[in-house]
């Protein structure tokens, strides 16, 4: 019997990685070569692999069809729509910190220790 299961990807979806690479240019144009370099450095993806280049190209074409990315010669940049969408999708979720509203949790040992100390004080009065 042969296994047909595939190994799960160890990185984020190509669209997200592309968005992050273009965002790293901080509003400037970024070349395909620099995007490849960003993916190799930050995600350890070997961009010499033809299949990976195909996935990258699909993600790039999708973003260009959505009018989020434009091409100028061999460089790419976010459109105003792309910048707005990036901010809404990725940066707004980072600002929301659910731990800020969380109450501190005390362990039972701490409660017993504090409760025991409070009982001793009340008993001594």
From TrEMBL:
It comes from Rhodotorula taiwanensis. GO terms for biological process: nucleosome assembly. Residues 88-100 have a biased composition (Acidic residues). This is Histone H1. One of its GO terms (cellular component) is nucleosome. InterPro entries: Histone_H1/H5_H15, WH-like_DNA-bd_sf, WH_DNA-bd_sf. One of its GO terms (molecular function) is DNA binding. It comes from the Eukaryota. Pfam families: Linker_histone. Residues 10-80 form the H15 domain. Residues 101-112 have a biased composition (Basic and acidic residues). Residues 87-125 are annotated as: Disordered.
């Amino acid at each position: 019997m042969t296994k047909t299961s595939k190994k799960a990807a160890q990185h984020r979806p190509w669209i997200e990685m592309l968005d992050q690479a273009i965002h790293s240019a901080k509003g400037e144009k970024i070349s395909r070569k620099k995007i490849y370099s960003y993916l190799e450095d930050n995600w350890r993806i070997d961009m010499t692999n033809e299949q990976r280049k195909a996935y990258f190209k699909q993600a790039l074409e999708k973003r260009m069809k959505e009018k989020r990315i434009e091409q100028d010669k061999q460089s790419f940049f976010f459109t105003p729509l792309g910048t707005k969408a990036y901010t809404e999708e990725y940066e707004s979720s980072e600002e929301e910190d659910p731990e800020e509203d969380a109450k501190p949790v005390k362990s039972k040992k701490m409660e017993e220790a504090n409760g025991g100390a409070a009982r001793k004080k009340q008993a001594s009065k």
